[in-house]
Amino acid sequence: MSDKDTSLTYKQAGVDIEAGDRFVNLIKPLVRKTFRPGVLTDLGGFGGLFRLSTRRYKDPVLVSGTDGVGTKLKVAFQMDRHSTVGIDLVAMCVNDVVVSGAEPIFFLDYLAMGHLEPQKSVEIMKGVVEGCQQAGCALIGGETAEMPSIYAEGEYDLAGFAVGVVEKAKIVDGRRVKVGDALIGLASSGLHSNGYSLVRKVIFDMAGLSIHDRISDLGRPLGEELLTPTRIYVKSILSLLKDVQLARAIKGMAHITGGGITENLPRVFPSGCGALITRSSWEVPPIFGFLQHKGGIAEAEMYRTFNMGLGMILVVSRNKVTKLLAKAKRLGERAFLIGEVVRGSRKVDYV
Q1: How far is the C-alpha of 17 from the C-alpha of 21, rounded, in Å?
Q2: Parallel/antiparallel/unpaired status of strands 348-350 and 273-277
Q3: What is the predicted pLDDT for the residue at 122?
């Protein structure tokens, strides 16, 4: 008997290198759709290369962000629908990057599962590609890890990393925020990708509902509502910042993620500033009221866990509110004047 007949292989241990190679070849055409000027490498190398234009920037600053999709993935597993969570992955990273005024230029992903399923993995990557196209950034690399015994059958995890660039003089960091500035909220697409451990506890454990249950207030099955992709604000924010007057007027931006409005908005306030928000100033999507009712969740907990219908909040000079609201509407955003900056100790109060 030859060594070939008796030797143990990596595939027998649960890792299929050939399947990984097939997957890379399948996604190469998808990934190339995201390429932009500056990309110097194709998929398959050890690192992704990106050339930063020295003509465009005088004093460039790189801004990075990393995140995952969290337990929203559990809903994707239940639905066996995997083409949107990649959008969530990109959104969670690039929305963090753009609040500094930076343009996301490239993205890398990390996909890990027990056994590589090429077709499912391609569906996941379609979402990542779509997210990158929405953000205008290039997908220049990533990692697909096959790890038997780490993940349950059919499950996987996703993480991502985005890099953006901004002229140092144009960084938006909240330093200029002052009492009297206005707060402008940009509508979310729903829950986005935060609070899903609480969401799943309320819906599946406490209410005993199924992802296939159709809720009249929502107008569609629960699973579809819960898998609504996170809104990507990059192109709208960058368009607002290209307007010279608005660029000066936008003093701070907060991506409303885990921690909700209550915890995220104060992150852009200097000492001595707080927020007073009028809860009736925007339309809260029905999913939030549904969760609050079914879970018996206190209102304060709702605002410190979920985005409550606002995925991004901008701190803006009072005299530019009308112009910003009008331009945001032209860009396809639903924008609301939701409150103002007041004297305080970096906390949010609601009326």
Answers
A1: 6
A2: parallel
A3: 94
Residue 17 pLDDT: 75
Residue 72 to residue 200: CA distance in whole angstroms: 9
Does 337 score more than 50 pLDDT? Answer: yes
User: What are the chain's domains?
Assistant: 3-170 (3.30.1330.10), 182-350 (3.90.650.10)
Share of the chain above pLDDT 70, in %: 98
Q: What is the distance between the alpha carbons of residues 327 and 330, in angstroms, rounded to a whole number?
A: 5
Q: What's the DSSP call for residue 39?
A: B
The torsion angle over the Cα atoms of residues 142, 148, 153 and 155, rounded to 10 degrees, is: -30
Tell me how far apart the alpha carbons of residues 255 and 319 are, in angstroms, rounded to a whole number. 23
* CB 234, CB 95: distance < 8 Å: yes
Decide: 201 and 295 in contact? Cβ < 8 Å: yes
What pLDDT is stored for residue 13 in this prediction? Answer: 76
Q: What are phi and psi of 30, to 5 degrees?
A: -65, -50
Most distant CA pair in the chain: distance in Å?
84
